[in-house]
């Protein structure tokens, strides 16, 4: 495995070799991942897995023709063959008027932002096992828990290096840790399962295992004996762990590829009020210890915090260079990529800012509604915004969370849902995409 400095030198050398082989432009990306995962179940060790892998990819441009190739063999002979294969493929590829590297004048220059993404910790498998056992023990100690699907703990480290033929080169390292538990409550046909997890960049920031286990157990027990809910239009309140999915649908609708292909329900919404006034959705790639923080995007452009929604208004698209050229715009520093293929566009640490009301205040005037804790299926039409997903959760009755319900469908249209959305004040940074508790009035609920 390569160190940070070795990785940067390796991608720079590969780009130089591509230029020598006739590339008009080229870029290279190196990714190393090393992880340890420990799984336990019913108090016994079930699995210990260690994985180490590294891969390097090259994009080779001849005019507007390009090819992408990759290899997990980083020997000099393998990389020489990689360059030769890329050159041959690029010369036979069809022309793409929008292909190419990011504009040179927009590349990150000077000091690299500090994102505090690696803590240098290296917990032993025994320590991870202890954390997993603690999570499961705490869950199984809760009255009503009858079985366990297991608990786990993990530690990982990654090295990322990128170089381009117009002079950009940088590398950085990230660490990551996680703990999870999944348990079953009840007996026979009345059993219910639920889970809890937490992820962090720094080991010291990982939530105590016992808290994770108890949360999983409490959720499973609360779901026992689900009832039915009469169909109709009513307020729907989304728990934070599922409400963040609504922001995922927003992101999918404003990426450059969706706009360039004219396959987005927000195609004509730029500069328009799509949420209520006061609502702000921000992407912050420079948050210290953020789960997706990064100093530059997948093309070498600087990253910066951006209000995608400002006072309810859609401020712009998420663009990598190819879709930006197609739309006659500038890339926005949101390029994402893997080892193979061209970059796409996406977000890093995305969140909706908290509102003014507590979750209790947000629900206080709901006579009959639904509190959603789990969503099932992928019933979202990205072209029209039509939304229909299976759900389970709890009835809201006279402003209070009441009995559990299952086999529910919630439906609406994302444009209307966004306009009717109200956030609570309980935002926490726990995921790559975060939202507080969300209320949406007037959704269609299909129950009994």
UniProtKB/TrEMBL annotation:
Cite the Metalloprotease TldD/E N-terminal domain residue spans from the record: 26-90
According to the UniProt entry, its GO molecular function terms are: metallopeptidase activity
Residue stretches making up the Metalloprotease TldD/E central domain: 120-224
* Database matches in InterPro entries: Metalloprtase-TldD/E_C, Metalloprtase-TldD/E_cen_dom, Metalloprtase-TldD/E_N, PmbA, TldD/PmbA_N, TldD/PmbA_sf
Q: Name one GO biological process term.
A: proteolysis
Q: Which GO terms describe its cellular component?
A: cytosol
Q: Which residues form the signal peptide?
A: none
Give the domain of life.
Answer: Bacteria
Q: What residue stretches are annotated with the Metalloprotease TldD/E C-terminal domain?
A: 231-447
Any Pfam family: PmbA_TldD_2nd
The record's family statement is: Belongs to the peptidase U62 family.
- Protein name (record): Modulator protein
């Amino acid at each position: 495995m390569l160190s940070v400095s070795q990785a940067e030198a390796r991608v720079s050398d590969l780009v130089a070799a591509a230029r020598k082989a006739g590339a008009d432009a080229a870029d290279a990306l190196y990714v190393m991942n090393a992880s340890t995962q420990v799984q336990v179940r019913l108090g016994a060790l079930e699995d210990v897995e260690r994985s180490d892998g590294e891969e390097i990819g090259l994009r080779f441009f001849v005019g507007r023709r390009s090819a992408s190739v990759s290899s997990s063999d980083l020997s000099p002979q393998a990389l020489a063959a990689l360059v030769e294969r890329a050159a041959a493929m690029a010369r036979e590829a069809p022309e793409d008027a929008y292909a190419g590297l990011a504009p040179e004048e927009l590349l990150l220059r000077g000091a690299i932002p500090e994102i505090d993404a690696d803590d240098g910790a290296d917990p032993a498998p025994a320590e991870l096992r202890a954390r997993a056992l603690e999570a499961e023990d705490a869950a199984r100690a809760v009255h009503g828990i009858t079985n366990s699907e297991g608990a786990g703990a993990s530690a990982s480290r990654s090295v990322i290096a990128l170089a381009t033929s117009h002079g950009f080169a940088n590398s950085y390292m990230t660490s990551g840790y996680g703990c999870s538990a999944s348990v079953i409550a009840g007996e026979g046909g009345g059993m219910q399962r639920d889970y809890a997890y937490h992820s962090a960049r720094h080991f010291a920031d990982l939530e105590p295992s016992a808290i994770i286990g108890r949360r999983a157990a409490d959720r499973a027990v609360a779901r026992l004996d689900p009832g039915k809910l009469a169909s109709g239009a009513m307020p729907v309140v989304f728990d934070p762990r599922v409400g963040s999915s609504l922001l995922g649908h927003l992101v999918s609708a404003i990426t450059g590829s969706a706009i360039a292909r004219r396959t987005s329900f927000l195609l004509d919404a730029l500069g328009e009020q799509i949420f209520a006034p006061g609502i702000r959705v921000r992407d912050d790639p420079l948050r210290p210890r953020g789960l997706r923080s990064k100093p530059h995007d997948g093309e070498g452009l600087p990253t910066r915090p951006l209000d995608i929604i400002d006072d309810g208004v859609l401020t712009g698209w998420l663009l990598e260079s190819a879709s930006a050229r197609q739309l006659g715009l500038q890339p926005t520093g949101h390029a994402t990529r893997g080892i193979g293929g061209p970059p796409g566009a996406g977000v890093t640490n995305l969140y909706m800012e908290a509102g003014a009301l507590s979750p209790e205040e947000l629900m206080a005037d709901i006579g009959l509604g639904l509190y959603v804790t789990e969503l099932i299926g992928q019933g979202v039409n990205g072209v029209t915004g039509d939304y229909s997903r299976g759900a389970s959760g709890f009835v809201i009755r006279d402003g209070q969370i009441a009995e559990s319900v299952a086999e529910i469908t919630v439906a609406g249209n994302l444009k209307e849902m966004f306009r009717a959305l109200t956030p609570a004040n309980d935002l926490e940074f726990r995921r790559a995409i975060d939202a507080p508790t969300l209320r949406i009035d007037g959704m269609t609920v299909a129950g009994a």
